[in-house]
């Protein structure tokens, strides 16, 4: 069996499930770096937190997660992730890995001495804070929508009929999500405050 | 041109100062990063994400303006307002520098004691 010229010899793919909250981007970066040092290089990630890695040679690779949502209604600190955003990072030596829910995954080998110490997308705390601030409006939007639906008696949720099974199920899902969104905002706010000091 | 409220923009941070200095000619993002690092003798290294955010801020403040877009790269240059703000910053820095020169020998005397 010979490999088709021009196409890659079949890669060995490894899937891993891991859950990171949106305030744990630094932990996620570190985990991806650890995976790379074991020869597992990130290929894709789905919304459920399943990461697909391609098995290769172990390498020291820095991963950076940037949050740049597309949404136009995101009025706070709008930066549009257009082509020039990606081009600037590519020019600076970063490789774009994937894009998921507004998060952009970038990586750069750190063994290269000319890049050592430069492997940062954000070089000051103020711009790091902006990254977290951009995360807020999206969370706040869904938090408000859900809170309104949970609290207003005339909302669509309550037309399911109080006490009925459908109502219990929807309420049982919506309530924890609302609490989770609220908690996420608190954690991100604390992260911003930490950077301010 | 109406009077500029300089205190709104000054003092410039070291990074912003260098970005404005190199934008006396039209440049794109990565060229700015390289040039800033070069002329600051390695003291100021700006990350690409930080610079991208700075473009948005400086453009909104009207200190820089996009001059063209080529091969996915945006080129910026100082606006007239940006030139005035940078000139005012340099004028204030010159005063600071003269005062620094006067203060320096006195500091050395303190050390000798």
From TrEMBL, chain A:
Keywords of the record: Membrane, Transmembrane, Transmembrane helix
Protein name, as recorded: DUF2812 domain-containing protein
Listed InterPro entries: DUF2812
Transmembrane annotation, as ranges: 136-153, 165-190
Source species, domain of life: Bacteria
From TrEMBL, chain B:
Protein name per UniProt: Helix-turn-helix transcriptional regulator
Superkingdom of the source species: Bacteria
Boundaries of every Transcription regulator PadR N-terminal domain copy: 20-88
Coiled-coil zones: none
């Amino acid at each position: 069996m010979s490999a088709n010229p021009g196409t890659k010899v079949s890669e060995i793919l490894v899937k891993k499930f891991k859950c990171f909250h949106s305030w744990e981007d630094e932990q996620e970066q570190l985990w991806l770096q650890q995976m790379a040092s074991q020869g597992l290089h990130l290929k894709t990630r789905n919304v459920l937190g399943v990461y697909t890695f391609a098995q290769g040679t172990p390498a020291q690779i820095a991963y950076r997660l940037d949050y740049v949502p597309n949404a136009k209604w995101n009025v706070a600190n709008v930066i549009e992730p257009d082509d020039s955003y990606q081009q600037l990072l590519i020019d600076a030596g970063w490789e774009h890995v994937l894009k998921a829910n507004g998060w952009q995954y970038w990586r750069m080998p750190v063994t290269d001495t000319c890049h050592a110490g430069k492997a940062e997308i954000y070089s000051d705390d103020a711009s790091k804070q902006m990254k977290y601030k951009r995360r807020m409006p999206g969370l706040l939007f869904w938090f408000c929508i859900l809170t309104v639906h949970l609290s207003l008696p005339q909302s669509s949720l309550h037309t399911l009929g109080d006490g009925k099974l459908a109502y219990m199920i929807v309420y049982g899902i919506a309530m924890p999500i609302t609490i989770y969104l609220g908690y996420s905002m608190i954690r991100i706010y604390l992260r911003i405050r930490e950077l301010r000091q | 041109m109406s009077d500029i409220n300089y205190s709104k923009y000054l003092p410039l941070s070291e990074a912003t100062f260098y970005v404005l200095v190199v934008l006396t000619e039209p440049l794109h993002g990565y060229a700015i990063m390289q040039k800033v690092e070069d002329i600051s003798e390695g003291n100021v290294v700006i990350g690409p994400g930080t610079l991208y955010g700075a473009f948005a801020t400086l453009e909104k403040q009207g200190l820089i303006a996009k001059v063209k877009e080529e091969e996915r790269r945006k080129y910026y240059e100082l606006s007239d307002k940006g030139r005035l703000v940078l000139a005012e910053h340099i004028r204030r820095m010159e005063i600071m520098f003269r005062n620094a020169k006067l203060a320096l020998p006195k500091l050395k005397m303190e050390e000798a004691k």
